[in-house]
Amino acid sequence: MATMVTLDQEQLKQDLIDTGRWIDGNRWCPATSGNLSAWLDAEQFLITVSGKGKGELTPDDLMTVDASGNPVNTPKRPSAETLLHSLIYRRFPQARYVFHTHSIYGTLISRVIWSGEIVFRNYELQKAFAGIDTHEVALKVPVFGNSQDMVALAQEVDTHLDSVQSCQAFILAGHGLYTWGSTVKETRRHIEALEFLLECEYKSMLLLK
Amino acid sequence: MATMVTLDQEQLKQDLIDTGRWIDGNRWCPATSGNLSAWLDAEQFLITVSGKGKGELTPDDLMTVDASGNPVNTPKRPSAETLLHSLIYRRFPQARYVFHTHSIYGTLISRVIWSGEIVFRNYELQKAFAGIDTHEVALKVPVFGNSQDMVALAQEVDTHLDSVQSCQAFILAGHGLYTWGSTVKETRRHIEALEFLLECEYKSMLLLK
Amino acid sequence: MATMVTLDQEQLKQDLIDTGRWIDGNRWCPATSGNLSAWLDAEQFLITVSGKGKGELTPDDLMTVDASGNPVNTPKRPSAETLLHSLIYRRFPQARYVFHTHSIYGTLISRVIWSGEIVFRNYELQKAFAGIDTHEVALKVPVFGNSQDMVALAQEVDTHLDSVQSCQAFILAGHGLYTWGSTVKETRRHIEALEFLLECEYKSMLLLK
Amino acid sequence: MATMVTLDQEQLKQDLIDTGRWIDGNRWCPATSGNLSAWLDAEQFLITVSGKGKGELTPDDLMTVDASGNPVNTPKRPSAETLLHSLIYRRFPQARYVFHTHSIYGTLISRVIWSGEIVFRNYELQKAFAGIDTHEVALKVPVFGNSQDMVALAQEVDTHLDSVQSCQAFILAGHGLYTWGSTVKETRRHIEALEFLLECEYKSMLLLK
């Protein structure tokens, strides 16, 4: 049994290392920004340590934290945004991976929306999200004003989630994107779809303004 | 004879796998979108199964369907758009490959044209299409409003094709591009030329608006 | 002596094959567009045959033509634009390589200038051209209206060259870029600098219009 | 002791070679532009020789210069901008690496600011700079008018540095970016963050103008 858990952790770590390389190749986590996590059980998850380039993660760059985001058996420092990962695992019990990227287009959207929501309409790629099967329903992604006070920010996100029926992702203004999924493939699909939609939306705005 | 057919199928599958990797490297099928097919004979064609990333296709991700797009000897589910591939093979008897991509610029064009046509003029690269030998003749690509009702959409495309003398490609608004060719090289050349022309056209619109 | 010539040709062919792969990686010759040549002697040069992707050239895709651009000892068909390469070798005796690319930004410039010239000012990278050692002198690149009549087009370029003191490159509207150099490194540097300057100029126009 | 110094130099050279390849892959030093240096001791530093592509540096392309930028024991010619590297090592005693890149977005910014400063506000990525821990403090990067007179330009930069409390980077208009750091990782992080911020700022300007 213990062996199985160990094997699982190794696989999860490899998933995050591979995802980091893919994200870095797409320039979605420049300059050591962003963070990636994977659920272990109801009481713990794995998360990238602070300040590492996502393109060259090693197993040592992944640490275990408890459900509240506190380090477990390690002197390593987790990413500042660990609290938001913790919140997401609590609010979305099916979530097994949470990825926070930091792209050009995720950043640009907050030049026009510092706090509010971005609404995607009529894009076939909205269907990339689990549970969405038509382009005819709007996909709404909330945007929260960036803050260095992660407790207050997590509280704001939590309150927002109380007010909506579903949520696939959210954006911190001038900062980046959070999304999650029940498998590593699904979570990567969500990231890829959101980055595509954000690029389309920015380029639409330029054309139509 | 049977052996030869088997060998052919292996080569066709490899063509689609290689094309998928090339398309993925260009970000033209993000988040498992798009689909690729290859003609087998008047009664069957190969097509990518639903929901697979185009950058990592394996032979198992390619299934056989009949001329109407129904699965042959397999419980696998074909892509939703199989009906459009079926239509193209029926309308263009010389077509041996059909590629449906889902790019940023193919999507953006429908922000200004939801239904109608995009006309390319004065681009030397219009000559990339079989049968076109000058930039002086306009290249017209019809744009159809996107729909989740593939039967209705196929009917609309079919009716349009009755009304034009030639057609090299068409676009589904907010969704993507379909093109075809008599060899895998020609079909890839068509995709590459169209993506180039769409990017030029978007960037021209920004400059000239 | 004959052996030396043979070795030279092999090296020149390898230069063009390597350059083709580099150009293709930058998407500067999409859909088999563009052509590359290398001077052999006053009476002959090597040039890419028509219709091959520049990313996967083989020695067989390079043919010998005479100074007027006619095939030498081969049934292969040279690129349509061979006449312009021929003209460049005649007008610029120091030229050893001529590259014709077909990029997004080279094409876009002709959306605002169909015939005339593009003038680059105040870019440090103007110094990438042999003989230019300050950003304070304008770099002028003539733009000629595209034509399928290569004889007439070559005549127009020739007449223009009579009227200017120096010329580092020229553009065919809606089509692409020609530049040349005395070594393969210098010619690649010219291509890279021009593509950079064209991208800057397009993006400047968007900002300043 | 002598052996240790030799080993250090080999490692520093490898750092610059690797950084050059990374920069070239990002198209931040096109057409042999830009230069990279590494501090040896208070009296000497290593710098790239003039006119080499940054993607294919060899140890021979790195030369030693004294603190004033004059070649040490070598007939090689240093880059024209060596004087600015020299100035940076003198003004910022903690600097161990100085990178000068030459990107599209670094160039574009001077289309609107030829001389003055660019101010980044509300970007989380401002925190990529050593000593900055919030997006709420503006990051100011001075822009100096480009000049071929490096002595005058260095004097202008020096005078500016007397007038400010801190400086993380500066830009030469129409030319490129200089930044520095105490490790190779930190200096690369600064380059990556600045290129990201410059791209965001250009794309914000397009949207908001």
Folded structure, characterized:
The structure is a homotetramer of 209-residue chains. By secondary structure, chain A is α+β, with helices and mostly antiparallel strands. Chain A is 39% helix and 21% strand. Chain A has five helices and eight strands; from the N terminus they run αβββαβαββαββα. In chain A, strand 1 (35-41) and strand 2 (44-48) form a beta hairpin. Chain A is globular and about 50 Å long. Chain A starts with a helix and ends with a helix. At the B-C interface, helix 5 of B face helix 3 and helix 5 of C.
Write the layout of secondary structure elements.
The structure is a homotetramer of 209-residue chains.
Chain A: H1 2-25, E1 35-41, E2 44-48, E3 62-66, H2 82-91, E4 97-101, H3 104-112, E5 116-120, E6 139-144, H4 150-163, E7 169-172, E8 176-181, H5 184-208
Parallel strand pairs in A: 6-7
Antiparallel strand pairs in A: 1-2, 1-4, 2-3, 4-8, 5-6, 7-8
Helix pairs in contact in A: 2-4, 3-5
